[in-house]
Write a structure and sequence with these properties.
Strand 2 and strand 3 form a beta hairpin. The protein is of the alpha/beta class. The chain is 45% helix and 16% strand. 45% of the residues are buried. The chain contains 16 helices and 14 strands. The strands form 3 sheets. A 7-stranded mixed sheet has the order 4-10-9-8-7-5-6, sandwiched between helices. A 4-stranded mixed sheet has the order 1-2-3-12, covered by helices on one side. Helix 2 runs antiparallel to helix 12, helix 5 packs parallel to helix 6 and helix 7 runs parallel beside helix 8.
């Protein structure tokens, strides 16, 4: 059998739909964020990155860089094994203490990524709690969906951010069955924020465990960066708060926080924790430095809020369509995969602006977009230049008709 032909057939179909992904060959330069070096066939050029999830530029922060360097000098590079077999390092324990404190919880548990922490925690809870039902928001991330699927627990989907629908579906489940309500605070593609207080109240009324994904909110919201749950004063009422170290904290890794018993339960039974090599100690040290900095510094968050508001206001003035929301994520709507790719390519090739097109399956077909994430390190001049580029493209007749 010609397996390569089978692969190529499906790849060709993906290209025809306009959903084939092409990676930009970029090189981040220390101290220059949001600038990066793009490697091209004919050489190199500088581009400005407008779609990074390093939301606050902490991957370039001197304290974070120095903490990683110091830990490498002390410990070397890798962890040396799984957490169960020689891989647990003092830096891991210090970071878990820092994360538990961030969310006001008894304990925390590290994973190699936010995807793995969701997959491992949800699959473990769903499979090990007898007769469990997981109620999942319709907008939940793929990592949550995969964790729920892998658990083989009964699954109920409730309409996105619809608390009344959640209430009805919880009421329809037997009172003696363990119920887990899984939802996110900030949804990464539309940038909308959940009605957290109402969700928590409904879950409590039905005796359900609350599972909150804060990956696009930690570091960014709340007086110490604890996320929307901290900002709204609800963290103490949520059973499990999951987050990432790879976005606002600028490093890599995922985690869960909760009671000692909950974290020990996941630690003891989650295959995604037990059988994978631990994060390098230097990564844990850098993440801890980033969290500690953002617990006491609001400068980065305040500057980011200013730049987000400035860009939104100017997009409105220019009549460039973007989804309204209360978060830091600005989705500029194109609604066509081919045109989305085309606009992204023009911005890169002619303007030196990097905004990755977001197409299916990341977003539903017909909702293709450019997902823009202003950071505190984007200058006013950067924003003006981006707006000039977008306005120029929208004034071109063919593109204007394509996105109308």
């Amino acid at each position: 059998m010609d397996f390569n032909a089978l692969f190529t057939t499906q790849l060709d179909a993906l290209k025809e739909e306009g959903n084939y992904r092409i990676f930009a060959d970029l090189e981040r330069r220390c101290g220059s964020f949001p600038r990066a070096r793009k490697h091209c066939d004919d050489g190199e050029r500088e581009v400005t990155v407008w779609c990074s999830n390093d939301y606050l530029g902490m991957g370039q922060h001197p304290a974070v860089i120095q903490a990683m360097k110091d830990a490498i000098d002390e410990c070397g590079t890798g962890a040396g094994g799984t957490r169960n077999i020689s891989g647990t390092n003092h830096y891991h324990l210090l970071l878990e203490q820092e994360l538990a404190d961030l969310h006001g919880k008894e304990a925390a548990l590290l994973f190699t990524s936010g995807y793995v922490s969701n997959w491992a925690a949800l699959s473990t809870l769903g499979s090990r709690l007898p007769d469990a039902v997981i109620l999942s928001d319709a907008g939940n991330h793929a990592s949550m969906i995969e964790g729920i699927r892998h658990s083989r627990a009964d699954k109920v989907i409730w309409r996105h951010n619809d608390v009344e629908d959640l209430d009805r579906k919880l009421a329809a489940i037997g009172p003696d069955r363990p119920k887990i309500v899984a939802f996110e605070s900030v949804y990464s593609m539309d940038g909308d924020i959940c009605p957290m207080d109402e969700i928590v109240e409904v879950a409590e009324r039905h005796g359900a465990l609350t599972y909150l994904d804060e990956v696009h909110a930690v570091g960014l919201y709340g007086p110490r960066g604890g996320g929307i749950s901290e900002r709204e004063g609800l963290a103490h009422r949520i059973d499990l708060i999951e987050g990432t170290l790879g976005k606002a904290y600028g490093v890599v890794g995922g985690y869960i926080t909760g009671s000692e018993a909950l974290c020990d339960f996941v630690r003891s039974f989650a295959s995604g924790f037990i059988f994978t090599t631990a994060l390098p100690p230097a990564v844990a040290a850098a993440a801890r430095a980033s969290i500690r900095h953002l617990k006491q510094s609001d400068m980065e968050r305040a500057r980011q809020r200013r730049q987000v508001a400035r860009l939104r206001a100017r997009l409105d003035q220019l009549n460039i369509p973007h989804l309204p929301n209360d978060s830091h994520i600005i989705p500029v709507m194109i609604k066509d995969p081919v045109k989305c790719r085309l606009i992204s390519d023009i911005l890169m090739d002619e303007w030196g602006i990097y905004v990755q097109p977001i197409n299916y399956p990341t977003v539903p077909k017909g909702t293709e977009r450019l997902r823009i994430t202003p950071s505190p390190l984007h200058s006013d001049a950067d924003i003006d230049y981006l707006l000039e580029a977008l306005d120029t493209l929208w004034r071109q007749c063919a593109l204007a008709q394509a996105v109308a």
